């Protein structure tokens, strides 16, 4: 790999835009959101990526990918329907 100005700018762009910014936003959102909601959003990431690849890149989805999406969406739906239990303090358990 040649260390040219365009290559260095692409590497910096990947490092900052594609790695640092999403991780920082994920960390900030994990402090603000309910852990259940944060995990539900995380579970939907592969589906979102697959749909965007289909729309923007023309990537074909086979039957196995569609079944996996259906299973994932079902899991997300079940997670949303399950009531969240409030944590019990350690002093209350004893």
UniProtKB/TrEMBL annotation:
Domain EamA: 7-80
Domain of life, source organism: Bacteria
GO cellular component, one term: membrane
Pfam families (alphabetical): EamA
Signal peptide, first to last residue: none
InterPro entries, sorted: EamA_dom (IPR000620), EmrE-like (IPR037185)
Protein name: EamA domain-containing protein
Organism: Hahella chejuensis (strain KCTC 2396)
